[in-house]
Every structure is written in structure tokens, then in C-alpha cells.
């Protein structure tokens, strides 16, 4: 009942020339059973929305401000992303939490702004290596989830991405048991916050997903897809991940 979601986060990578990758991805998956989402830098949201043509690929932002408008130099609002062609926006990525000091309360405000603008919020959370080694992973992600969910979150407007910070861009991946433990726990935690929506909210895994490990990760219960960084930049890398999800 939860539609699988293959999401790519281009981070601060890409150019108009890279839109050829979007065309190649769309051509490789013309009628996919899974939902496809790419989140390029803000400058590429509108060009990417054009490049997809009639393909149902979704385009998303990587961050938005919690306000509708105002004196916030360098920021972008959810409505601006929407106008540019976005349907989703990532909020609370660990790189935002670390580089920009975003708290879970900030993330909840951004997710609320996304919802108000009609965007799906992809709320990211995950433990650091020190937290994993201290045995506090479940407590950390539970705290982040509870504080990052805005009022009014539903299965239609919210996706949660579990991304262990130590697995992002490192080539290190949790064991399937560790992924299963966290996803199962997040599903239960969702039920305490949003009893009516918990079963429908997609839970993505993120952190060094690639073609060689995707099928195993997608076999884990409560993994509804992936948020992929480096391996989403090229169609030849992302397409096998999408195919693995289609076959999961
Ligand atoms: O948003 C994506 C994640 O940070 C994962 O990045 P990665 O696939 O390059 O490890």
C-alpha cells in the first residue's frame, strides 16, 4: 500500500549539462511502478522540471526557509520551489543540521512551510557514529522524529528518511539488521505521533546506497525506498538502484 520511492539528492552538484542524466533516467524507466524523485540544487529545479518532459519524475528542493517570504538573504521559500516545478523538498538533512546548525525544531518549521506550500516534506534524521557507538541510536532518532514532525503531517505530505550520518558518502553501510531495527522502531514511533498516518508514511534508507547493495537494503521490511546521494548523479548509477526497487 506504500508506493516505493527512489529519491536522489544531488547536493551541491550538477549543471545544466547534467540534465542529460535526467533524460537518460526517464528513458530507462518510462513507466516505472516506483515513484522517482530527484532533488537538484535550487538553480536546476525549473530546468530539471522542463527536462523530464511528460515523464512523471518528481523534482524536489534540498531545503526551504520556514517563512513564506522576507529578509532572508540566500534562502528560498517552499512556494518558490513549488512555482519552479518542485513537488517535494528535503528538510533536516544532516548536512544542513551540521553545516547550518539546524535543530529538529527548525526542521519541523520548514516541514510545516513545505506543507503549507503544497510540497511533500522529506524529513531526514539519523545518528552520528559516536551516538551509534554509545548505543543511543534509537533514542536519538526517536527524539529527532518527534521534534521534526510538524502538526498536520500525513502519509501524503510527509516522507521520513533514515540516514545514519556515518554512512553518508563514506561507503559504510549499516547491517541489514541495524537498518531493520531502526526502521521498525521509526514505524512504531510514527504510530505514537500519527496513529492514522503511520502505516502510510514512506520510510527511506539513505547512506552509501549503490547498485551493489540496493537489492539487499530494499529487502528489509519497512524500507520503502532510498534517498541516494552520490549514486544519483549519473543515470548509469541510479538506474540499477531504481530497477532494484522496482523488483523489490
Ligand atoms: O541525501 C543523501 C544522503 O546523504 C546519502 O548520500 P550518499 O548516497 O552519497 O551516501
UniProtKB/TrEMBL annotation:
SUPFAM superfamilies the UniProt entry points to: Triosephosphate isomerase (TIM) (SSF51351)
Tell me the active site.
93, 163
Record keywords, A-Z:
Cytoplasm, Gluconeogenesis, Glycolysis, Isomerase
Q: Which GO terms describe its cellular component?
A: cytosol
Tell me, what is one Gene Ontology molecular-function annotation carried by this entry?
triose-phosphate isomerase activity
Oligomeric state and partners? Homodimer.
Family listed: Belongs to the triosephosphate isomerase family.
Name of the protein in its database record: Triosephosphate isomerase
Amino acid at each position: 500500500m506504500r508506493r516505493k520511492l527512489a529519491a536522489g539528492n544531488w547536493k551541491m552538484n550538477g549543471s545544466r549539462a547534467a540534465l542529460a542524466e535526467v533524460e537518460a533516467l526517464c528513458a530507462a524507466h518510462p513507466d516505472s511502478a516506483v515513484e522517482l524523485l530527484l532533488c537538484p540544487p535550487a538553480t536546476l529545479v525549473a530546468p530539471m522540471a522542463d527536462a523530464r518532459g511528460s515523464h512523471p519524475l518528481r523534482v524536489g528542493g534540498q531545503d526551504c526557509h520556514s517563512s513564506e517570504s522576507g529578509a532572508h538573504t540566500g534562502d528560498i521559500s517552499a512556494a518558490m520551489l513549488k512555482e519552479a516545478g518542485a513537488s517535494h523538498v528535503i528538510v533536516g538533512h544532516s548536512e544542513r543540521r551540521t553545516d547550518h546548525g539546524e535543530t529538529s525544531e527548525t526542521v519541523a518549521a520548514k516541514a510545516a512551510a513545505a506543507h503549507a506550500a503544497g510540497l511533500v516534506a522529506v524529513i531526514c534524521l539519523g545518528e552520528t557514529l559516536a551516538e551509534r557507538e554509545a548505543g543511543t541510536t534509537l533514542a536519538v532518532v526517536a527524539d529527532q522524529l518527534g521534534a521534526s514532525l510538524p502538526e498536520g503531517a500525513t502519509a501524503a505530505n510527509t516522507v521520513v528518511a533514515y540516514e545514519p550520518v556515518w554512512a553518508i558518502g563514506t561507503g559504510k553501510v549499516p547491517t541489514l539488521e541495524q537498518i531493520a531495527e531502526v526502521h521498525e522502531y521509526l514505524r512504531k514511533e510514527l504510530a505514537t505521533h500519527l496513529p492514522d498516518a503511520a502505516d502510510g508514511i514512506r520510510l527511506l534508507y539513505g547512506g552509501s546506497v549503490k547498485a551493489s547493495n540496493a537489492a539487499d537494503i530494499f529487502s528489509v521490511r519497512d524500507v520503502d525506498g532510498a534517498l541516494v546521494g552520490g549514486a544519483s548523479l549519473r543515470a548509469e548509477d541510479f538506474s540499477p538502484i531504481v530497477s532494484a526497487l522496482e523488483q523489490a
